[in-house]
């Protein structure tokens, strides 16, 4: 039988359907099926499986075998599972059921005790029991007691008696009820500026810097006492007290050093420029070992003539042990510079402060001071308080105009013509005026000594 589906009426309400038309492939049979035969029926059941519970789901459909699926609930730590008829009971094992308080106790180190940790929990606060124990303040205190180190309340023993204030001229006892007064003096005032605060103000000259020659210097508040080199006191036209170098460091130290200052100027006595030391030409300057010596070239006459120290007179290799050159465009300012920078005439001429410091020790070699630019301007440096150094002064009156040499009378032969200073009628003669030295005989480079002149020769050996 052929069925035309377009002839059916659509039904949207399932409960109104009582039969469903169908067709079987086997036998070509048209059938009517009740809707209920198309439904699947499900049922649930719980069963105890040890500590777990199995939930079984069974599905049944008319004309078909039942289908079963099992879902298992597994008990975890602290949890129990119990199967019921239509339910599963889940319960906690050992859970806190109630919290209560208990009687306070005494601490032995733990301020709060929780006991037990399962079931009914009691929280206990422990009182302080002294020494290193901790806990709450125990009962029993009052306004006149204190908590002792052993954990008990106690009343202070005794009361205030007295105490002593010791001074440099005696001791004062302060008793209960006494008043301590801070009294001002000539340069000290006291004032109570706030609760429990006493302010002491100092004014005027608070101390005096005394000298051993009868001169005292008052030091006022806010002033600074400066210890410096004496460059102002002159006795019999000679400056005294010089040579002390003071240096304030970044700490609370004031460094003192002994140095001998030699003022250097450049003078032309008529026979060429010479380096004058402390106002006179010195063919040989005598420096005592163990001290620092400062050559001061601040004078403008030194322009173009930077001083240098070397082991060879007018040499090309400066001495470098225990020596420091200083150059600064500011006056009286020691700024360390290299020897090369100091000898650069452009730099040298721009400096307002020009110093060379030399430390003489027992091991210092034979040294010379000279101009690093021009030869024949310096002399040698000897050591000691004159020991080993001999100066011989010869005076000759020239009556023979053909004389071109003189013979000195020193005990030993001079080692160089640089060690003989010659003056003709009081005028110093440059070393270049003499050509040779043979033993004790010094010969002019050209010409003769002027007839009738007085020649003086100062020989250093």
What is the alpha-carbon Rg in Å?
Answer: 59 Å
Q: At the fourth CATH level, what is the homologous superfamily of the domain at 236-383?
A: Cupredoxins -  blue copper proteins
Label the overall shape: elongated
CATH topological fold name of the domain at 236-383: Immunoglobulin-like
What's the short story on this structure?
The protein is an all-beta fold and 461 residues long. The protein is 2% helix and 44% strand. Strand 22 (244-248) and strand 23 (254-267) form a beta hairpin.
Protein model, in words:
- The chain is mainly beta and 461 residues long.
- Among the domains are: 47 residues, no CATH class; 148 residues, Cupredoxins -  blue copper proteins (Immunoglobulin-like); 70 residues, no CATH class.
- Helix content is 2%, strand content 44%.
- Strands 22, 23, 24, 25, 27, 29, 30 and 31 form an 8-stranded mixed beta sheet that branches. Strands 8, 9, 10 and 11 form a 4-stranded mixed beta sheet that branches.
- Strand 6 and strand 7 form a beta hairpin.
- The longest helix is centred in the C-terminal third of the chain and has 6 residues.
- The chain is elongated, with a radius of gyration of 59 Å.
Structure keywords:
single chain, 461 residues, mainly beta, Immunoglobulin-like, 8-stranded mixed sheet, 4-stranded mixed sheet
């Amino acid at each position: 039988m052929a069925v035309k589906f377009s002839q059916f009426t659509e039904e949207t309400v399932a409960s109104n359907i009582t039969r469903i038309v169908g067709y079987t492939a086997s036998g070509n049979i048209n059938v009517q099926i009740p809707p209920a035969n198309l439904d699947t029926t499900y049922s649930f059941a719980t069963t105890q499986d040890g500590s777990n519970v199995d939930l079984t789901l069974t599905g049944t459909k008319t004309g078909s075998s039942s289908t079963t699926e099992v879902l298992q609930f597994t008990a975890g730590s602290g949890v129990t599972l119990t199967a019921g008829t239509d339910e599963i009971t889940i319960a906690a094992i050992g859970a806190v059921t109630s919290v209560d308080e208990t009687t306070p106790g005494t601490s032995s180190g733990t301020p709060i005790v929780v006991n037990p940790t399962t079931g009914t929990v009691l929280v206990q606060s422990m009182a302080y029991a002294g020494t290193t124990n901790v806990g709450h303040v125990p009962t029993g205190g009052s306004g006149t007691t204190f908590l002792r180190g052993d954990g008990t309340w106690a009343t202070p023993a005794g009361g205030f008696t007295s105490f002593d204030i010791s001074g440099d001229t005696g001791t004062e006892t302060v008793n209960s009820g006494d008043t301590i007064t801070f009294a001002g003096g000539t340069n000290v005032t006291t004032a109570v500026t706030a609760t429990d605060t006493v302010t002491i103000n100092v004014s005027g000259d608070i101390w005096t810097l005394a000298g051993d020659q009868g001169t005292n210097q008052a030091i006022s508040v806010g002033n600074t006492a400066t210890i410096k080199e004496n460059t102002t006191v002159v006795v019999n036209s000679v400056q005294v007290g010089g040579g002390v170098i003071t240096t304030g460091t970044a700490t609370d130290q004031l460094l003192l050093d002994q140095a001998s200052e030699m003022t250097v100027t450049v003078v032309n006595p008529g026979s060429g420029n010479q380096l004058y030391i402390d106002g006179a030409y010195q063919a040989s300057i005598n420096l005592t070992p163990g001290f620092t010596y400062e050559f001061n070239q601040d004078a403008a006459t030194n322009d173009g003539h930077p001083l240098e120290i070397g082991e060879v007179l007018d040499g090309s290799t400066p001495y470098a042990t225990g020596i420091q050159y200083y150059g600064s465009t500011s006056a009286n300012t020691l700024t360390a510079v290299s020897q090369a920078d100091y000898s650069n005439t452009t730099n040298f001429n721009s400096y307002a402060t020009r110093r060379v410091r030399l430390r003489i020790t027992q091991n210092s070699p034979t040294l010379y001071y000279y101009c690093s630019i021009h030869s024949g301007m310096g002399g040698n440096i000897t050591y000691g308080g004159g020991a080993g150094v001999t100066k011989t002064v010869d005076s000759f009156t020239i009556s023979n105009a053909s004389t071109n040499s003189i013979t000195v009378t020193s005990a030993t032969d001079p080692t160089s013509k640089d060690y003989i200073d010659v003056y003709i009628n009081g005028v110093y003669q440059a070393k270049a005026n003499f050509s040779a030295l043979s033993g004790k005989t010094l010969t002019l480079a050209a010409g003769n000594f002027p007839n009738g002149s007085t020649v003086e020769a100062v020989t250093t050996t």
